[in-house]
Every structure is written in structure tokens, then in C-alpha cells.
């Protein structure tokens, strides 16, 4: 097994791999490839402010802000503190902050052309923000001269469409890891696996002892996909890179191996008996109450497992050679955009500036224990450092498939809605799943 990288080099490792960003969130939080929404009546392209418009009026204003409904349990505490600190700094600006946004409510607001002043976006993780820009829904922030000096170029690229800035910049790193119950591992003579074979052998041992090896939310479209998100960079990172560049295809054997590993886990009972009917709350409860020894989930839920009181450990999925290649993604917990129809754009920009500040980011870190990508954010505890121990930050399969999608054939949606359910139920093999994705993909140069 390769030597672990120290926490201090996390940002560099992540940034090298962040040509694509991936998901981080719960069900219905991901934007679809096309919103299907009409363009605002007032504009055919995104609004842009002149430098003279950048100064707030000083009058008392109220901004309507939508928070991430799917992650309310994690975000309610930090945003209560962030918003209080913002209002203290800008006493003339009041926030009406509601956890009202998921994919459905956002699309309804787009259809009705009734967006709040501010709402969260996923940057370049999906095509959603670009579609909103194209249809004139978002305020162009370029002329407001926001301070971007603390951020690296990939973080700026996350918020940029056609060279223009559209959201507050990310400052945290998301990936998927195996959260495990140290007490159950110790009881069954297990330690952190050095390679894939040790990982599988440990799951066999747990199953033989009557313990569900891995809790899985088979009922939840996004949460049931986390194992594949974790397996794909470990098994098939090179193949995904080649497919994205048009130098290879998704029929590469390592892609099929990734999908087959997921089916094998279901077939062998590693996810338990009733995982197909289990939602994420049920899967998390099975893990935290000791019925399951592990759960594969995102770093964004680290605080949830810490708060449960379980004797918690974390490790990335190792490949056959023992190398730990993790999916790379920027967190969208603090990346917000402004509606082009906001009546208070300058004040809304102040909120984005505050979200991009070290003060607000440290509040988020202290509450959630996310993995920082900016050096002046102090990690919450040693557990955060444990999340950052990996050998390489790789691509995310969802983002690769999004890049290979067209309006007529969305390969990413096909994986989530067709391939994964069929793998879980044994309806297709990994090789057949890879062929389905290959057929749906449009490679560069085609």
C-alpha cells in the first residue's frame, strides 16, 4: 500500500483531479441536464451589472434565500450561525432563509419565473447552472469584482460559464468513503483493509457472523449509487479519463468490473436482506445502531455519524493493488447564485462575498467537519484529517457521464435510473450495464 498523503497536500491533490466535479447531496438534489424552463421575459441572456451598480444602497432590504432541503439536518445549525453573523455585519440587510429547495421546487420556480433572490447551485458538477445561465435566470457577478484571491483556478472554474462568474466559490472537498463501526470491526478481528481482496474478505467474515456488512439505501436513487461512485475511481479511473477525452469507451473492462462489483455485493448479501426497500434514514440508523458494520457515504455526512456516538472510523475503498483513488468533487454547501430578477442585487452580492469569506467557511467547518481545500480553514478535528487520507483524487463517474451526455441521451440519468436498479436486482451484468452506458454516450469527436 502506498504511503498516505498528509492533510496539508489535500488541496493540491484535489485540484489536480478536479477537471470534473461530482455529486454531493441527497435524493432529488442534483440538477437535471435540462430544466425545461422558459427564459425570463426580461432577458434572453444573463443579467450583468455595471461597476456603479455594485454598491449597496444602504436602505433596509430583505433577501429571500433558499437552502438545501435535502441536507437541512446537516446545514441548519451552520447557516443559522452564518446568517446571524452576516446580519450583524450588515444590519440593513435581513435574510428570509428557508430550506425550501430541491430539484422539484427549483424547476417549479424556473417554470414560473419566480426564483428567490439567492439559491444554491452545483456549479459545473452538472449542466444545470449552465442551462440557467443560457436562459437568463442568473445574475452575472463579473462586474461586482468579488475578492477571489483565496481561491485557486479550479474553484473559480466551478462557478464560471463562458468566462463569467455566477456563484460564490467552493471551499470544501467532497468524496465518498467507507464509514465503519470500530467496535464491530474489532469484535470480528477486522482492521482497515490494505487492498480490495482484504475488503471483500472482511465483508464475508461480517456476514458469516450475522452482521450486515454494509447498510445501503436501495430505495433512494442517489444514496444507493454511492458504492458505485466509490468503486469507479478505484477500478476504472484511467478508463473514465480516456472515455471523457474521446480516447476510449465505456466498454472498457474496468468499467464493467466496477458495475459487476456492485451487483456482486447485492448478490452476496453484503447490503443485507431488505436493502431494496430501505431509505437513507433507515440505512443510517442501521449503521449507527450497530446492525450494520459500515456504510458508504459522502464526506458531507461526516457530522451525522460523529453525532450518533458510534465508535467511528473511515477509509477510502482500496483497489486490488492497495491504491486509494477517490472520487473528487467540490462541496456545494456554500455555493449560491443570485436571480437575475432580484431587486437587490448589490446586497445579494454581499451575502455571496460573506459565504466566500474565511469567517463563514470556518463556521461551516466547525459545524460539519467538511474537508477544506483552503489552507486558512482549520479542520474541525482529527476525523476530518482521516477523511483526507488517500493516494489520488480521481474522476467521478457521474460527471464523466454528464460530459458524455446530450439533450437526447443523458448517460448519467440512464446510469442512475436504469443501470443501477437492474444491477441491484440481478437483471443485468456489469458488462451489460457498461454496454448500455456506452450506447447512451456521445464521445468527443463523434
Automatic annotation (TrEMBL):
Residues 27-57 are annotated as: Disordered. Residues 1-22 form the signal peptide. InterPro entries: Bact_solute-bd_prot1, SBP. Residues 31-57 have a biased composition (Low complexity). Keywords: Signal. It comes from the Bacteria. This is Sugar ABC transporter substrate-binding protein.
Amino acid at each position: 500500500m502506498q504511503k498516505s498523503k498528509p492533510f496539508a497536500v489535500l488541496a493540491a491533490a484535489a485540484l489536480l483531479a478536479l477537471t470534473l466535479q461530482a455529486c454531493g447531496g441527497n435524493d432529488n438534489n442534483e440538477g437535471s441536464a435540462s430544466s425545461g424552463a422558459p427564459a425570463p421575459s426580461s432577458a434572453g441572456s444573463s443579467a450583468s451589472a455595471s461597476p456603479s451598480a455594485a454598491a449597496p444602497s444602504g436602505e433596509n432590504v430583505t433577501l429571500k434565500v433558499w437552502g438545501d432541503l435535502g441536507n437541512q439536518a446537516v446545514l441548519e445549525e451552520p447557516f443559522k450561525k452564518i446568517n446571524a453573523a452576516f446580519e450583524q455585519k450588515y444590519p440593513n440587510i435581513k435574510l428570509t432563509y428557508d430550506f425550501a429547495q430541491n430539484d422539484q421546487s427549483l424547476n417549479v420556480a424556473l417554470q414560473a419565473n419566480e426564483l428567490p433572490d439567492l439559491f444554491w447551485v452545483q456549479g459545473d458538477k452538472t449542466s444545470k447552472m449552465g442551462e440557467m445561465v443560457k436562459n437568463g435566470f442568473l445574475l452575472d457577478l463579473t462586474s461586482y469584482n468579488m475578492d477571489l484571491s483565496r481561491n485557486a483556478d479550479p474553484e473559480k472554474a466551478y462557478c464560471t460559464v463562458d468566462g463569467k462568474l455566477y456563484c460564490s466559490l467552493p471551499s470544501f472537498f467532497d468524496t465518498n468513503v467507507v464509514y465503519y463501526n470500530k467496535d464491530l470491526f474489532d469484535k470480528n478481528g477486522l482492521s482497515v483493509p490494505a487492498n480490495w481482496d482484504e475488503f471483500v474478505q472482511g465483508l464475508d467474515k461480517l456476514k458469516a457472523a450475522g452482521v450486515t456488512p454494509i447498510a445501503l439505501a436501495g430505495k433512494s436513487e442517489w444514496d444507493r449509487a454511492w458504492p458505485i461512485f466509490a468503486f469507479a475511481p478505484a477500478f476504472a479511473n484511467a478508463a473514465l479519463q480516456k472515455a471523457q477525452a474521446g480516447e476510449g469507451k465505456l466498454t472498457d473492462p474496468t468499467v464493467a468490473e466496477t458495475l459487476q462489483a456492485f451487483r456482486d455485493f447485492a448478490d452476496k448479501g453484503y447490503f443485507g436482506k431488505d436493502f431494496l426497500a430501505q431509505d437513507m434514514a433507515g440505512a443510517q440508523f442501521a449503521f449507527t445502531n450497530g446492525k450494520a458494520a459500515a456504510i458508504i457515504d459522502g464526506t458531507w455526512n461526516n457530522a451525522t455519524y460523529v453525532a450518533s456516538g458510534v465508535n467511528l472510523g473511515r477509509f477510502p475503498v482500496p483497489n486490488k493493488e492497495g491504491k486509494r483513488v477517490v472520487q473528487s468533487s467540490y462541496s456545494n454547501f456554500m455555493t449560491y447564485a443570485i436571480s437575475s430578477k432580484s431587486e437587490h442585487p448589490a446586497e445579494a452580492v454581499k451575502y455571496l462575498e460573506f459565504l466566500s469569506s474565511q469567517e463563514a467557511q470556518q463556521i461551516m467547518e466547525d459545524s460539519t467537519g467538511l474537508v477544506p481545500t483552503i489552507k486558512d480553514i482549520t479542520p474541525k478535528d482529527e476525523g476530518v484529517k482521516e477523511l483526507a487520507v488517500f493516494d489520488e483524487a480521481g474522476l467521478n463517474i457521474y460527471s464523466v457521464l454528464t460530459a458524455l451526455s446530450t439533450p437526447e441521451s443523458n448517460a448519467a440519468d440512464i446510469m442512475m435510473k436504469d443501470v443501477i436498479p437492474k444491477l441491484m436486482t440481478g437483471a443485468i451484468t456489469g458488462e451489460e450495464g457498461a454496454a448500455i452506458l456506452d450506447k447512451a454516450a456521445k464521445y468527443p469527436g463523434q
